[in-house]
Amino acid sequence: MKFVVLTIFPEMFGPFWDHGIIRRAIEQEKIFASTLNIRDFAEDRHQVTDDRPYGGGSGMVMKPEPLAAAIRAAEQDAPSAKKILLTPQGRVFNQKIAHKLASYEELVFVCGRYEGVDERIDHDLIDDEISIGDYVLTGGELAAMVIIDAVTRQIPGTLGGEDAAAKDSFANGLLEHAHYTRPQVFEGKAVPDILLSGHHEEIENWRLESALMRTLMKRADLLRNKDLNEKEIEMLKKWSRNIQDILNFHHKAHKE
């Protein structure tokens, strides 16, 4: 997988390439990552990449000439790349999109700045627009890093275990199950006995139930949109019966 990032601040990406999973993926040649400085494609000696918007208004807009030249240079390096503009107006990024992007061999990220980019760039040279949430950042660099990190995790071998990404939160429509490590007891709270039992099937059932519970408590909206399997449905039905029994008991107690 090849990532090319177009930005006016390429120095922001050095530390990103040099740490954690991204660094290991680069060392193992699972990914190839580089930046292009949009300023290098400006036509004037001051390397200006922005100008005032036509029609007036506050802020500045990224000029089309340097952006177009930078995108076309990136196409020379990554001819089959999907070209993505990072913008608050794009479709909101999620795990499903990360998985889809990981199927491409090359991705080019265009990091907007100021009030945005000239509309003619968006129409002619961009394949997709992505946002990482309904809020506004100073530029697209942080959004590019977020997406690159999420996509890299989808590439086999980058996480150490072949099924590691499949167990991440959102990968199967659920939040991930609760995790515990040493010590066995911390401030009076013990690790659940089942995780110490060595019974792998029972541990997997516990993890599924934990994932369902955490999803129900924290992101119930995910359950409404998930295609539940038979085991998940039975667990939810069991909880429903237990909750109804509790409610019936208290209703009866209040009447007495």
Written overview of the protein:
Helix content is 41%, strand content 16%. With 256 residues, the chain is of the alpha/beta class. It is elongated.
Q: In angstroms, what is the radius of gyration? A: 24 Å
User: How helical, in percent, are the residues?
Assistant: 40-55%
The low-pLDDT segments are: none
Q: How many separate helices?
A: 9
Q: Any idea what the CATH architecture of the largest domain is?
A: 3-Layer(aba) Sandwich
Sheet with the most strands: spatial strand order: 2-1-6-5-7
Largest sheet: 5 strands, parallel
- Principal-axis shape equals elongated
Tally of DSSP β-strands = 9
Q: What percent strand?
A: 15-25%
Oligomer: single chain
The secondary structure category is alpha/beta
Topology summary:
Blueprint lengths: L1 E6 L5 H5 L2 H8 L4 E6 L12 E2 L9 E2 L1 H14 L4 E11 L2 H7 L4 E6 L7 H7 L2 E4 L9 H12 L32 E2 L2 E2 L9 H19 L1 H6 L4 H26 L1
Parallel strand pairs: 1-2, 1-6, 5-6, 5-7
Antiparallel strand pairs: 3-4, 8-9
